């Protein structure tokens, strides 16, 4: 009887808990609500339960539907706050510190996801002065779902920006918000829903994928949990075996002395310059473990204090030891290596730095044109130059793991669907690197993302502002074909959709880093488009020159542009660069180019009968210098469709 009574009481308690009013995570303390539009506040409760909301001295109510959902529509409000919101049903909830302003979704892949922490060395003053209760972010954790569209997030909360929280803010989004707030003094809410490496198809609905049969077919496979589990288990086993093998075979770990021991005899080690790749120094085509070692002389003035060890970027993984003590590790190639050394790790005189590098595929080594130095306060020791190195072990390339978050529709169902009832001002989007190898498909795939999101948000053609791909990879001596140029063209074509905008950043990328550090100009250029498309500023120059048309006259091609602002210019006062011209044979050569008014005249003595022009048509058109006088760069373009 006691057991039955206990079960009965527990069932009553669980029923009471289930009956309580529950809110989605987006509707929580510190949230930003969209101004000047009707708002939906929604949640869950027991079927038939009455829910009341008290907000800004008015009361609203709803009755919970048969599916346990309820929703209340609030009238449009002007920007302001802070406010509290009371919600009553079988329980009592208070949401505190609400402001009303503009809500922007920040989506795409890693360059939108990239947090301020990754660029903190570049923007220390901005971070120190960042406190602003009017700029807030809700971070959506990376997750995916192929079976159903989710109704809520498993985690997440609204954070006001300050010198501590800013480190987790999207860097592009923060500079975008900062720029808009400084001009309009309206609170800005950022919903960060970005996933590094994600292709566009991961952000589409299942219905939208039907226009892309291969992606739709893939999505059907991933609906089955057993299929996912089998792949996950296979990948885990392959990865575990690979790392276990190199651990067991690495001579640097199992020698008489470990190779991070400062007293190790390294007279038989070879040397190579760092930064650099080891395939240029006798280890061509090698994957596995290579150890690097450098002895430096540290003055007494740099000891007894915390230090920073900057080791650029390393492909792929590294573990660092200073004077035999472990200093840190990073497990993949993209983050900058910035190791904080505690006081006491450095000693006067000789100090030994050892780096164990694991390379699992491709070229291994140290990325050039990055900082390699040891700093204590204002004192610095340059670490570039010859390092000793020795081979720990070789290994076959590690097969690529399956990234489930990259599969079609998974991110849309898990990361976009839960926010669809939440009213927004618009979307800023930085994505395309993962689709650059499929640029022709991207011409329809990317517009499908824009159209699908607008369709399902039920807010009409809200502003959708995106970033064109930055300049990246090594420059080429001659004109040629380029996947990244084709992807930029696909993005340019998306401007034909209403209320879109494109920030051109082919002048602020880094040839050796797919994640360029300059996120301030990216945010500011997106904000210019927002001022035009979202805030109705008809006077602002929001874009650099965009190709409009061409004509052939007397062996020269005359190119006309829109968005010329107060006039075209060659930045730096130099001759225009990166124009190429071709005749009917389709062979492009570098061309002469000159500005005449708001036109550019292009010609070459090698092409007496020209038919086509290309500008900045390369992976990395470094040095392309056509701008308007508002200092905004022209978008790369071509006049042909070859």
UniProtKB/TrEMBL annotation:
<keyword id="KW-0378">Hydrolase</keyword>
<dbReference type="InterPro" id="IPR013783">
    <property type="entry name" value="Ig-like_fold"/>
</dbReference>
<keyword id="KW-0732">Signal</keyword>
<dbReference type="InterPro" id="IPR008979">
    <property type="entry name" value="Galactose-bd-like_sf"/>
</dbReference>
<feature type="signal peptide">
    <location>
        <begin position="1"/>
        <end position="19"/>
    </location>
</feature>
<feature type="domain" description="Sialate O-acetylesterase">
    <location>
        <begin position="102"/>
        <end position="207"/>
    </location>
</feature>
<dbReference type="InterPro" id="IPR036514">
    <property type="entry name" value="SGNH_hydro_sf"/>
</dbReference>
<feature type="domain" description="Sialate O-acetylesterase">
    <location>
        <begin position="411"/>
        <end position="512"/>
    </location>
</feature>
<dbReference type="Pfam" id="PF03629">
    <property type="entry name" value="SASA"/>
</dbReference>
<protein>
    <submittedName>
        <fullName>Sialate O-acetylesterase</fullName>
    </submittedName>
</protein>
<dbReference type="InterPro" id="IPR005181">
    <property type="entry name" value="SASA"/>
</dbReference>
<dbReference type="InterPro" id="IPR039329">
    <property type="entry name" value="SIAE"/>
</dbReference>
């Amino acid at each position: 009887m006691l057991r039955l009574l206990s079960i009965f009481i527990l069932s009553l308690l669980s029923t009471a808990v289930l009956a309580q009013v529950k809110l989605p995570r987006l509707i929580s303390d510190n949230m930003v609500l969209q101004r000047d539009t009707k708002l939906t506040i929604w949640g869950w409760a027991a079927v038939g339960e009455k829910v009341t909301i008290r907000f800004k001295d008015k009361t609203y109510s709803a009755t919970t539907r048969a599916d346990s959902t309820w929703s209340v529509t609030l009238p449009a409000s002007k920007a302001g706050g802070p406010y509290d919101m009371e919600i009553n049903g079988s329980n009592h909830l208070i949401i505190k510190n609400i402001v009303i302003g503009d809500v922007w979704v920040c989506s795409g892949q890693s360059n939108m996801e990239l947090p301020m922490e990754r660029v903190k060395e570049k923007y220390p003053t901005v971070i120190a002065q960042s406190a602003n209760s009017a700029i807030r972010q809700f971070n959506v954790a990376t997750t995916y779902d192929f079976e159903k569209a989710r109704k809520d997030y498993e985690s997440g909360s609204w954070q006001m920006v300050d010198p501590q929280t800013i480190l987790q803010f999207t860097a592009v989004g923060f500079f975008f918000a900062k720029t808009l707030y400084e001009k309009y003094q309206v609170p800005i809410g950022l919903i960060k829903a970005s996933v590094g490496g994600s292709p566009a198809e991961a952000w589409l609905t299942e219905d939208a994928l039907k226009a892309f049969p291969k992606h739709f077919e893939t999505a059907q496979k991933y609906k089955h949990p057993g299929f996912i589990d089998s792949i996950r288990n296979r990948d885990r086993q392959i990865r575990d075996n690979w790392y276990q093998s190199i651990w067991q075979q690495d001579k640097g770990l199992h020698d008489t002395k470990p190779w991070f021991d400062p007293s190790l005899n390294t007279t038989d080690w070879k040397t190579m310059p760092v930064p650099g790749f080891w395939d240029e120094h006798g280890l061509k085509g090698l994957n596995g473990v290579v150890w690097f070692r450098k002895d430096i002389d540290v003055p007494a003035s740099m000891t007894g204090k915390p230090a920073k060890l900057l080791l650029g970027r390393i492909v792929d993984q590294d573990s660092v030891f200073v004077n035999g003590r472990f200093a840190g590790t990073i497990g993949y190639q993209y983050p900058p290596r910035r190791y904080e050394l505690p006081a006491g790790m450095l000693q006067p005189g000789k100090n030994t730095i050892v780096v164990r590098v694991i390379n699992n595929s491709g070229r291994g080594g140290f990325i050039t044109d990055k900082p390699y130095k040891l700093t204590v306060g204002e004192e610095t020791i340059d670490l570039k130059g010859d390092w000793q190195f020795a081979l720990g072990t070789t290994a076959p390339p590690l097969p690529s793991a399956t990234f489930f978050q990259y599969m079609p529709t998974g991110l849309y169902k898990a990361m976009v669907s839960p926010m669809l009832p939440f009213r927004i001002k618009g979307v800023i989007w930085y994505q395309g690197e993962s689709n650059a190898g499929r640029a022709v498909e991207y011409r329809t795939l990317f517009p499908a993302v824009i159209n699908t999101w607008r369709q399902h948000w039920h807010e009409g053609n809200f502003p959708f502002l995106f970033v064109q791909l930055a300049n990246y990879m090594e420059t080429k001596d001659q004109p040629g074909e380029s996947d990244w140029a084709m992807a930029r063209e696909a993005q340019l074509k998306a401007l034909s959709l209403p209320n879109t905008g494109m920030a051109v950043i082919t002048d602020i990328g880094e040839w050796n880093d797919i994640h360029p550090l300059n996120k301030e100009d990216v945010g500011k250029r997106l904000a210019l488009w927002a001022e035009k498309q979202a805030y109705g500023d008809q006077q602002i120059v929001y874009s650099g020159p965009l190709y409009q048309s061409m004509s052939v006259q007397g062996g020269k091609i005359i190119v006309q542009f829109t968005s010329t602002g107060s006039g075209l210019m060659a930045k730096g006062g130099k001759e225009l660069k990166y124009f190429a011209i071709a005749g009917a044979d389709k062979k492009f050569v570098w061309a002469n180019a000159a500005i005449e008014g708001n036109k550019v005249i292009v010609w070459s003595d090698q092409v007496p009968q020209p038919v086509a022009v290309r500008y900045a048509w390369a992976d990395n058109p470094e040095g392309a210098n056509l701008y308007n006088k508002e200092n905004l760069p022209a978008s790369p373009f071509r006049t042909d469709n070859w």
